[in-house]
Amino acid sequence: MNAVGIDVSKGKSMVTILRPFGEIVSSPFEIKHTSSDIHSLIKLIHSIEGESRVVMEHTGRYYEALAHQLSAADLFVSAVNPKLVKDFNNDSLRKIKSDKADSVKIARYALDKWQSLEPYSITDELRAQLKVMNRQFHFYVKQKTAMKNNLIGLIDQTYPNANTYFNSPTRSDGSQKWVDFVSTYWHVDCIRKMSLNAFVEHYQNWCKRKKYAFNKSKAEEIYTKTKELVPVFPKNEITKHIIRQAVDQLNSTSVTVETIRTLMNETASKLPEYSIVMQFKGIGPSLGPQLMAEIGDVTRFTHKGALTAFAGVDPGVNESGSYAQKSVPTSKRGSSNLRKTLFQVMDVLIKTMPQDDPVYQFMDRKRTQGKPYYVYMTAGANKFLRIYYGRVKEYLSVLPDPS
């Protein structure tokens, strides 16, 4: 038994090799994430007598290249949750945090958990790309939200509440009516300098040019409201530049978001479970690919409980003797991105109210019982994942073998 503990960091790793009863095969040493250093490590591990198992923490993306190379070299590799290693055998009063100490601890963990170590599996390239796109998607959505709030804050200084005039959804090209509106009418004086008829005509031409629906009463309503508004900034070139710059930044990010959204749907459609996943209520071409990206290959989960635990929506347990707590918070130890997507799906179900959907019926029943919002939403997410696991796994089992 040779336990190879690897503490991974960016561009380099610390390696320790131990045997049972504290026998040191190799004291902590550093390797670079280069082909030559990785090849030397593989050669060293193969040269050691007895079975060897390599264990590392799956932290971020740093470990993937090393895990992939070692696994491809016919070595047993296991990537474990850092939380498990952190909580393992903390029997020292001293607080030590170093790469060397961490690699030793990981090697000791490997020896202790030898029989229960799960082998690292190389993720399908398509699924890996979909997951990366999903993380990029959420990153740009956050940027878009920040830029939208920034633009609203600026507009409140020149044209208060202009963002509330329209509630049209974002188009597939990333454009949005209220953003285009404030780009043209960036100050109240852009409208107030015109007569009502002149503005209605100008607004109609603007709608035609931007391909938005024109409503005369809406134009008259906007004109009437504008007469009562009080701007802070004057109508000059500096103010115009500030507003237009914020609009351009928001539009650019919005285009990126919609491009990634479309690409994610195209990529997800190539996965075998796409058709069955898209049949779920509450899921569309946006949330469907996000859900598939975060769950990955459902067949890697041994049972329904493993999937709910991965998402962190599994109910906790608090029992001792004759005491058993009835309502225990969920673990929240799993993927926060998956939980976020699940809550978005539950939100769609709450808003659309599909009466024939078992998940909505379950949530509605919990809500009727007076359960708090987070309780019935989390319970709904748990039930949804259990149904998802059963349906998708059954669907995949009857598909012909692609090989």
From TrEMBL:
<dbReference type="Pfam" id="PF02371">
    <property type="entry name" value="Transposase_20"/>
</dbReference>
<dbReference type="GO" id="GO:0003677">
    <property type="term" value="F:DNA binding"/>
</dbReference>
<dbReference type="GO" id="GO:0004803">
    <property type="term" value="F:transposase activity"/>
</dbReference>
<protein>
    <submittedName>
        <fullName>IS110 family transposase</fullName>
    </submittedName>
</protein>
<dbReference type="InterPro" id="IPR003346">
    <property type="entry name" value="Transposase_20"/>
</dbReference>
<dbReference type="InterPro" id="IPR047650">
    <property type="entry name" value="Transpos_IS110"/>
</dbReference>
<dbReference type="GO" id="GO:0006313">
    <property type="term" value="P:DNA transposition"/>
</dbReference>
<dbReference type="InterPro" id="IPR002525">
    <property type="entry name" value="Transp_IS110-like_N"/>
</dbReference>
<feature type="domain" description="Transposase IS116/IS110/IS902 C-terminal">
    <location>
        <begin position="275"/>
        <end position="357"/>
    </location>
</feature>
<feature type="domain" description="Transposase IS110-like N-terminal">
    <location>
        <begin position="4"/>
        <end position="160"/>
    </location>
</feature>
<dbReference type="Pfam" id="PF01548">
    <property type="entry name" value="DEDD_Tnp_IS110"/>
</dbReference>
